[in-house]
# Entry
Amino acid sequence: MHRHHDDEVHEHDRGLSYDLPVLARRRMIRLMAGAGASLVPLAGCTADGSSSPAAASAPSSGSTGDGGTDASPAECVTVPEETAGPYPGDGSNGVNVLKESGVVRGDITRSFGESAGGTAEGVPLTFTLTVVDAGSGCGAPRKGAAVYVWHCDREGGYSLYTEGVTDENYLRGVQETDEEGRVTFTSVFPGCYTGRWPHIHFEVYGSLRDATGATAITNTSQLALPKDVCDTVYATEGYESSVDNLSRLSLDTDMVFRDGHDQQLATVRGSVREGYSATLTVAV
# Structure
């Protein structure tokens, strides 16, 4: 497996400047909403279905033992729009994996195609995103939508971009949502690289055709992983660099999640031995 080098740290720094316009825009919206600005629409709904501009968002994390978390019900708010970062692989920054045959899949641990054959190593992680309609109070699943996901490997590198794995395309995949609005991916637990809280990127599309055509993204956001689970995973072999990187961060100081992460913090259960499962409801 590869290791990050100094030039790759610069790549992450370049990614920060790439991300700033989206982050600044999101912070401005939050400030306006907090001041009661009537021009900022939020897709929040109260329990009786009425509109609520101050509606809280979904999953909060609480320990359930063995590194797991649990969530409490909350009101419906559209998932925050976030940067795709410098390594999306969706054609917006160089390579486009979405148009390649094989990208529609549930198991993203292995690369696909003739030129790639690697497998990402790490603690097993299965994660499920449930896409729901915010306009209906999060009560209606978005059947037939599509979700593209991608994340770093256990050493913090991104396939297609990071030195040593530019010929790989693992830890990337697309699926169409089922009757319940769900997509489930089999993967490995991502590492923590310099300057970012452990996360998984995702883009929501109106249909599978839109996704594989790399067009008409409806939402771009990120899933955050809870600290207690990260601490447990990063104590295992292969995640050594993540221990120090995570110790320098918190959800409240992370460049993406620091202005609110309630709608993005996944519920996680499991163990290192048996693997982990993460779930997140995504209102769009």
